[in-house]
Write a structure and sequence with these properties.
Structural class: alpha+beta
Shape: elongated
Oligomer: single chain
Number of helices: 4
Low-confidence stretches: 81-85
Helix content: 25-40%
Strand content: 35-45%
Number of strands: 10
Strand order of the largest sheet: 3-4-5-9-8-7-6
Order of helices and strands: HHEEEEEHEEEEHE
Mean pLDDT: 81
Distance between the termini: 78 Å
């Protein structure tokens, strides 16, 4: 009888511990961006362009490439598997990078070639090119292409006349974050 009581008590402690752990993950993971913003600024410069880091994202990166990352928690036993999911969180990222060839994007010369290349790339990745959007920025027009899959979205934005592009990969519900980043870009004097 005493062994059974101990076993029930230990099982109950384990279940309570797991529930508390999942609750802490649900609370702590989305706040990583908040804590990053407390210690750092809200803006970052890349190749003469000033970008605002969205409030739930934190920044990492190196020369020529910056990454804004946002984690959204998942419950391990319930969550659907995806390429961008870890055991407790899905990663959503906005990458800002310089073009490898060092050339500026020119809408008149590059748009249709780029659109064709993107259509092939997203098809190979199991996504479909869903929409195109042009955004007004203080630097001119940005051209964005959104591709969606069942659990993932990808948005690529090219700033006309710029050597910098922006890429989002993550959950479709956070895809609009990249449009906010691109719309707010300005040039540093």
């Amino acid at each position: 009888m005493a062994l059974r009581k101990r076993l029930v008590r230990k099982s109950l402690e384990l279940v309570i511990g797991l529930l508390v752990g999942v609750a802490l993950i649900e609370i702590a993971i989305p706040q990583l961006g908040f804590f990053w913003h407390l210690a750092h600024t809200d803006q970052v410069v890349m190749d003469g362009h000033l970008f605002t880091v969205p409030s739930k994202y934190f920044l990492s990166g190196s020369e020529g490439r910056l990454t804004f990352t946002r984690f959204s928690p998942v419950v391990p036993l319930i969550a659907e598997r995806s390429a961008i999911a870890g055991p407790f969180a899905k990663m959503n990222m906005i990458g800002i990078y310089k073009h490898d060839d060092g050339k500026s994007f020119d809408r008149d010369a590059d748009y249709f070639r780029l659109k064709e290349w993107l259509a092939n790339e997203v098809k190979q990745a199991g996504l479909s090119l869903e929409s195109e959007r042009s955004l007004s920025t203080q630097l001119g027009t940005a051209y964005c292409f959104q591709s969606n899959g069942s659990q993932m979205a990808e948005v690529r934005c090219f700033l006309d006349g710029s050597k910098v592009s922006v890429l989002f990969m993550g959950e479709p519900r956070f895809a609009n974050d990249v449009y906010q980043v691109v719309s707010g870009v300005t040039r540093v004097n």
